[in-house]
What we know:
- By secondary structure, the protein is an alpha+beta fold.
- The protein is built from 8 helices and 11 strands.
- A 9-stranded mixed β-sheet has the order 9-10-6-5-4-3-2-1-11.
Amino acid sequence: MPNGERRVKTDVGDFRVIVRDDTTINPMTRLETRIGTAIGVGGNRDICVFMTALDGSDTAKLHNVRTRGLACEVSEKKPIRGPSTVHMVQLAFTLLREEAPPVRFVELDDNSEFPCLLEGGKQAGISLALYELAFHQSTWYERHFGAEVKNEVLQSLYKKDGFHAPKSPVFDFKHPVLNEELSPLYRRTDTWALFFEELYKLEGKCKLMLPWYKEALTAILGGISFADQVWRIPLTGPLVDYSPVPTKGGSRRTTLRNKTITPSFEYIDDLSKIKYSSRDFKRQGGSSPRESHVSR
Length: 296
């Protein structure tokens, strides 16, 4: 596929695809030089998957996968959620394999956070990887793409037995209200997996986790934090069939530089000062932690 913008059709919908040279600018000469390939997939307005691959490298970088609040399909009549998000990423991987044949792995540079709504309309970011790990016992990229920790030693230590083993009799939830409200639930459940299953049923589950989830998951995973580790995906998944959609005027040169989405959240120095209400502890009906919790 030549540099520029195209529309392609798959069995999920029509997508806007951008393939261009990834370049760098020499700070002394101001000359622009190609260093690789950049690929974006999305809708008319938004690019929802963005990745780059250096020329000759066996590893590409996945920088962004976002669907929340974005129009990721050309017609915008078909929201991209759940399996459709997986399909869209697989389409991007298919284009990557065509445009950069040496690539064998995709390294995740997508240290996503999503917003927890706090009192007063403020938002605080929570790690998507750890949130999904808590409720699914695996991350989104593990479940759908077979992602592994790049460091082989750490991957060998990445054991999830702690979710299903008997937990310690007490746990500090790092907040006086949470210690009072969550401790009875903690005592009623024998394992962390069962605790998180019950926690998921509460209205304010994201907000309720903020002060303590990192410490809990580090303890569950044997004292090792996997939040900031480098993860990678072997590029061996299924290819996506697609066909070009004719557009008036042909392709056009475009840039991806300003298309990625970087959400900005409040940074809270003292998580023990988060305010909670009775609504946060209210059970929501019909929810199940076996479904994906986050609209990507």
